[in-house]
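Consider the following assembly input.
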Amino acid sequence: MYWSHLKKTALLGTTKMPLQLEPLPEPIQKALAEEKNTEDLFLKASAMTLLYEKAGTMHEKVTFPNQAFSETETSEYSSKNIHAIWKGFLNEDKVNYYLVEYLLLQCTQNQLIVQDHLIVPILNKFFTKFKSKLYPVIGKKGLWLTQFNPDWQDKLIVDNVWTEGKPSARKLYFSKLRKETPNEALALLEASWSSETGKDLKDFLNEFFHRLSSQDLDFLNKVHEELAQIKKPKDITSDTIKIILRLKLGIYGCDWANSVAKHIVDLLPKYLDSEKKPVEIATFWEETKLRETLGMQPISPYRGVSDELYWISETLTYLHPQYIFDYFDNDIQKPIQKFVDTPESLLLNAFSQSMELATPDQIDMFLSSCDFSKYAWHDLIQFLNWERQEVLLMKNDSIDLAILKDFVLLNPHQEYSTKFSTYILSVLASVIVNPQTFYTLMYEHDLMSTLGRCFSTQLLKQLDNYPEQIQTEPHRNMWERSVVVPLKSSLYYKKMIQAEFLQKL
Amino acid sequence: MNYLTDEQVAQLAPDASSLKAGRDLSHEPKWLNFQSNERVLWGEVQGSGKNPYQTQIDLTNTAFKCSCPSRKFPCKHGLGLLFLVAKKNGEISSAIEEPSWVSEWMNKRSAKVNKPEVSTEEEISPEVLLAQAEKQAQAKAKRQEERYLKVQNGIAELELWLKDLVQAGLLTIPQKGAHYFERMAARLVDSQATGLAGLVKSFNKLDFFKNDDWQKESLELISKIYLLIEAFNRLDQLPPLVQEEVKARIGWNIQTKELLEREDIETINDHWLVIGRQTTIEEGLTMQKNWLWGLKSQKNALVLNFAFGGMAIETPILPGSIAHADLAFYPSNTPLRATVKNYISTVDYLPEPISGLSSWNEAHAKAIDILAQNPWTDTVPLLIEQVCIVFHQGKYYLQDAHETILKIDSTVSNEQIWKLLAITGGNAVSLMVLYQFDSVRPLGLVQNYEYLLLD
């Protein structure tokens, strides 16, 4: 309070603004009454006044509503060992997030929460990555704590995200729902589609390409019918109709798919089998207006690919593959071989995309017949069980780093068999011994982290020995640095996590 | 075994890179072997050299030895071994028999500590001894007088400098530049008034850009310096203990060796809870402030340790632990600074519940009692019961049972406050704090028979 009085003299100096004693407390005025020197007077007055104020500070009294955490935790606190693993992750500079997620999952499944003093470090280090997935392990107290830091609040967690969320949040929600429980997603959109904006409806329908089935047909027909009645449709409406028609091509047995399939299988021999005489192509596209109906570009965007080939490939992408198998009298191996052998990679890719609608056995047959380097196989392989995936990959001669990365990063939480883990080690070794890719693994942190999560911990022992291919000193050094060190570090953690949770089980 | 916690080990690291390297070495498979007994922990680790490095740690005084060529102290191997033991909660294999390379070092250390002072001189007659003592006393008095004159000259110059500063006004401070204050501080160092030099250097720590707080802070600094000048100018009129306090503040300190030899100093045997530690590094000098709390005596103590060039500080005092020891206090009318005279052992748990003050008003009364005797007091360590963290108008406060609030010091990070909230859940707890009159800095909390240090 007296600071404001001292301030003027203090800032401007005693020459310009000598200190006036009057406003200061009386005892100080008395003590300094005899002081004549301006600087001494100011220095003494400020020393005394500041002490006077310091001693006389009265602390404020405020009544607040109770802000304390008062619930009872329903989960158990983690053991000392789990605590040690968390601390280890917190202390790592380059932490393996896949293993953190693994631990998170184990703790969540076993309803274990972390010690109170780890809540803040865990939120600080891992919230950006895992958001609300952290909430079960920080317990009710941790959740209560998030109110003090907006950075720890997951904005996507809204109970009524579908009815009140922002468009982006609703789309994320719907996309996730469609992939996980397609029927629930269908029911949700069935109830609300008439009130959705044109753009949102189009985006939601685009999600139907995931896990498309005949159960979607009635709904698609209903929306199609309604939109088709609009006399002067906007561009967005026309686009939505095109999406619906593409979707319906993937529903085996529906009228629209039947009619298109009939023509397409007639066209295919031109590309797959030169001995058979196809129908007149130009006439077909002109008569059916299929290109315009499905919204394909009038000119092929691919260099060296004719317009017709482009159009038929696009159509094939959406068409249910069973139509092709039917054409070949259900001799599945035949069409597969034809697509594999065709020099037109566009057709093979289109067919491989449509194979997502096939049965696992058909997919297996297809993947077994074709070199992975020739088409986008990643989405297909996921329809097979893990054992088959491992076998197919080990069988495939064309595995290189790119294919390996695609495969590994596709399922970063998969448990590999020891045999498969060993096989991947040999692929990594071949990457190092290849002079063109000698340095590559040094920069593949994400790949190494994923492998550290997926590999069998049995590999820890094997990592002490060099693979056959690694013979020279530079190769050994690179192997140690880019493979052994990161993998060992991750596998130790994995072993600790497994030891803890397997014991519990 | 008596092991250090992860947080305690982290505090020993000389720098961030050593800390990281130490943590990297905390994986068990990296060690060829490691064992311990009550007094020492040792292990062998394969480094880049041909032979494995031999690392050993004296657990009593937290002293390190390693055969690696690192110039850092402690090296990453010492830290790694301690981290490893902390990870395993001290549960490692113990061996009564130490390998020769360990026992050799440990025996040397014990021999050094227990070395009796053997006089090699022949027996001297009492007259000669008396004459020698008189001579020494005369020499000491002469040295003291010379020093007094030196300090007096420095202080006279400082007084003029200070008056120039207030004549021109504080608004000129930001324009003066660091050199202006460093030059004055250097002169004070030459005059052997290092305490005052430190105060003058504090002007360079003011933040002129953040807000206007620097204005009041600089006047507080000026006032503190002026009070010391005034006190020194009247030194002979002050009571002896106040004289000692003033001399210590000026930088005229008693050497630790001399302090321990003096018979008139206050020595207290107690279980000392190490309630907090603050380490600062300035111009290559590491200063470690340890605040202690005597469980029986209810006395506070401040143990300062120093090290140059990033060297580790060897001390049996570890934050959060309880050291049973004799502390020798530096003479003062408000004794606080102390040194460990005799360390006996470390205890993990509070032997009995401890009680503190029940309100901020009580705390304030205690603090102004000290302030009345020692006007340079800035902080008073104390235990306050039943306080909880509250969030009010964008700031965090500690509220006592009577609803009185005191702002948490602005240098305490939000992260530290959230950690405290995570532990307490916002409920009332007993806290060890540094009371700073208009704000407070929490150091740790007392829960049952445990003291949890806030890092």
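Chain A touches chain B through 57 residues (CB under 8 Å). Ask yourself how this observation constrains the way the partners meet.
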